[in-house]
Hints:
Elements: H1 7-23, H2 27-34, H3 39-50, H4 61-76, H5 83-87, E1 102-105, E2 119-120, E3 128-133, E4 138-143, H6 150-153, E5 157-161, H7 177-212, E6 214-215, E7 218-219, H8 224-252, H9 258-284, H10 294-301, H11 303-307, H12 312-323
Parallel strand pairs: 1-3
Antiparallel strand pairs: 2-5, 3-4, 4-5, 6-7
Amino acid sequence: xxxxxxxxxxxxxxxxxxxxxxxxxxxxxxxxxxxxxxxxxxxxxxxxxxxxxxxxxxxxxxxxxxxxxxxxxxxxxxxxxxxxxxxxxxxxxxxxxxxxxxxxxxxxxxxxxxxxxxxxxxxxxxxxxxxxxxxxxxxxxxxxxxxxxxxxxxxxxxxxxxxxxxxxxxxxxxxxxxxxxxxxxxxxxxxxxxxxxxxxxxxxxxxxxxxxxxxxxxxxxxxxxxxxxxxxxxxxxxxxxxxxxxxxxxxxxxxxxxxxxxxxxxxxxxxxxxxxxxxxxxxxxxxxxxxxxxxxxxxxxxxxxxxxxxxxxxxxxxxxxxxxxxxxxxxxxxxxxxxxx
Length: 341
């Protein structure tokens, strides 16, 4: 088992970072928030030039790793575009292969466990989206018109699922359960790589801040309390990075436990995000919540990734129910201590 990204994928990620920086870097998300109608115009030319849509994450490990590296680069700049969801778009010739992308949803209707209903940060990027539920059921949905400013919605809009047609006798199904579960695993893993890029950037911003700011005649970085906080956050971030590589390998090799690994990755990423953003905001102080600081933008646009399709508590509950007393397989079996209820 080799979970390290290939050199080609790593270099592709570096190229994407430089391309996003040249296109505006941190200014991209600010411009998109100020002029939502230009969201696609600001980002899509860069992705086209990179050849992003030529990648087929389902086509092999090399392309999947390159897709993950691209998602991580997009997260570093808080790119105002659902790169992971677009990369996950079905390409198997099914009726949902002509949609804008694939979104994982908690359910097809509002409920006490699924929240207010399916939603995703896809406002203004095309009406038709493929969906897959947490039990692997594929479907189609229409993105509603955005309500409210992206400053408060982060481009999240409601998804209105199509009615599920009744099965026709003697007619083969378009896809089977295995197809839906494979989509689910991929649709869970790639957005976690986007969130990982955001965690990387938040830590880098915090390091730069504590090195530059002084208190009592010395940099903040010299204080043990600051060092301990950054160390705790970095340990969480590194753990997520290793688990992300393992989950990516599980998807690439078609492991039967790939969905379990993807859910475990998501839970670990959400827990790490809570700690990383709490520490980095604390170290920045009140200014960390002001638009003048990049951390504020990164933190705000991480919210859709952290809340959809399920938040931390609901993700833990779903994983607990899924694995039951069997637990997780593989080298990260002890990563999560999940107790059956």
